[in-house]
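Structure request: Retroviral nucleocapsid Gag protein p24 C-terminal domain-containing protein, Hirundo rustica rustica.
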Amino acid sequence: MNSSHRLEENKNSMRRLGSIGHTGFSSPSRGARCGNQRTYSPVNPKDVQAIVKAITDKGISSAMVSTLIDSVFGGDDMLPFDIKQTCRLIFDAAGMIVFKQEWEDNCAKQLALVTGPDHPLYGSSLQRLMGTDPTMITLQAQAEGLRAHEVMTTTRAAREAIRSASMVIAKPSSWSTIKQSESESFTQFVDRLQASLVSSALPSEAKGPVLAECLRQQCNSATKDILRSLPPGSNIADMIRHVAKEEHFAPIQAAIRTTITSEMACFKCGQAFKLGERANYQTPTFSTPIS
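Returned structure:
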């Protein structure tokens, strides 16, 4: 789908979010009972818009996106109608297919735990939890007909489904695709890889070990040869110093090898010879002694 079309679709969907509601079973600030009637408050379009923007900026599997989604789903009070509308903004077509299947599987697992009338999900069904029951298609019907535990169950099942689907469809992290080119210095390669890791969603304590491993695995063949001479357990600073030193001396060593194997002309006799060899030069003899 064209990105501009997707953006316009997102805007239109967010305009409709004003009519999408939370049931307010577990959070008085989101809803309450008015007599025998349940009330619900709408999903804040700005919250969903923040999720969409974070996905664009940081990627769907980033920590920021996860936190924002938790803030929307954390009340355990999302109606199936809410869930579907919100997730249509989070996922593209392929992601939505994966999400729906994960959501259905999670709901089915919870229903399988029902053993008798004392269970809070007794009498429920997959259709009720996912909003496909013919009597519960509309938002109002779901708000009036679903029990509190059903709403909590489907919300939690959907949140787990979002996590699973996000992992499936997430694009490879940029740092995992960075390779050192043959003409690139090791320090330039380190700079590119480090910059990518800094902006990634990896936990800070994991970035150092990941950087070290990527430097070893994603460097070019010449650098790998150099790194093999380092003792096991060498840190990143050791790697940089060692490779930089070898890269500095490599042109000098190459020039020496070239010079050694090059032919030169003897300044005495003009005969061509390789450096390190002696020209076939004989001291001339004279019939008349030189006085």
